[in-house]
Amino acid sequence: DGYRTSEKSDVMLFIGCSPYFEPVFEDIPMRTLNIAEASLKVLNSLGIEPLVHPDERCCGHDALWVGDVETFKKLAEHNAAIIKESGVKKVIFFCPECYRTFKLDYPDYVKLDCEVMHISELLAQRLETEGLRFNEVKRKVTYQDPCRLGRHLGIYDAPRKVLQAIPGIELVEMEHNREESICCGTSCFTNCDSYSKQIRVERLLEAKATGAETLITSCPKCQTHFRCAMVNKGEEKGPDIEIELMDLVNLVATSLGG
Fold this sequence. Notes:
Blueprint: E1 11-14, H1 18-24, H2 32-45, H3 61-65, H4 69-86, E2 90-93, H5 96-105, E3 115-118, H6 119-130, E4 139-143, H7 157-165, E5 169-171, H8 194-209, E6 214-217, H9 220-230, E7 244-247, H10 248-256
Parallel strand pairs: 1-2, 2-3, 4-5, 4-6, 6-7
Helix pairs in contact: 1-2, 2-10, 6-7, 8-9
């Protein structure tokens, strides 16, 4: 409610599995739809009323990475078909896994006649071409490079350009950043175990060591995994890893006000 979308838009916002993650991870708590809503607000502020297609399906990332190629191909074919039928020229993603899947994996199975882009790239582009301006948000933050956005697609500068353009934001890097960034612990949920949790704990400790108030991510799964690590489910109490978590697009939406 309150967001503008259009069935005739030439830009599509891909929502992915966000609506399904909410009930699964409500005990964390993790509201992935907040990221989708913030993305709509940001796009509207840029003068874009995107198509939100009611028939889109999961991008198929996890299916492909666990070897279920048949399911992945069906999902890819379905999504490619609805995109073609809608006539959109550009698809925007707030999830790096969806973006990576469309950009690198789909071309091996289906033909996409449109541009694909992560929302951080769009924002960085608008900063350069249109002088996009933000309101002040006073906060000391550090940034988690998602593996799919960074290592897989080489996108390190765009999120940082956006953060540095917000007045009042102080960005402090973790010891391991960019190409050397530490993973949030796992990608496919089926591979989440005690080893991946230890990786998350170490990464959160590194974030806290910067003195930042907030750990900014650009990936719903990164945030989900970090939140999961901070929830004590009867285990022996470990080190203090509590830190505020926020998606980049939520921070941008906050800075836009309204």
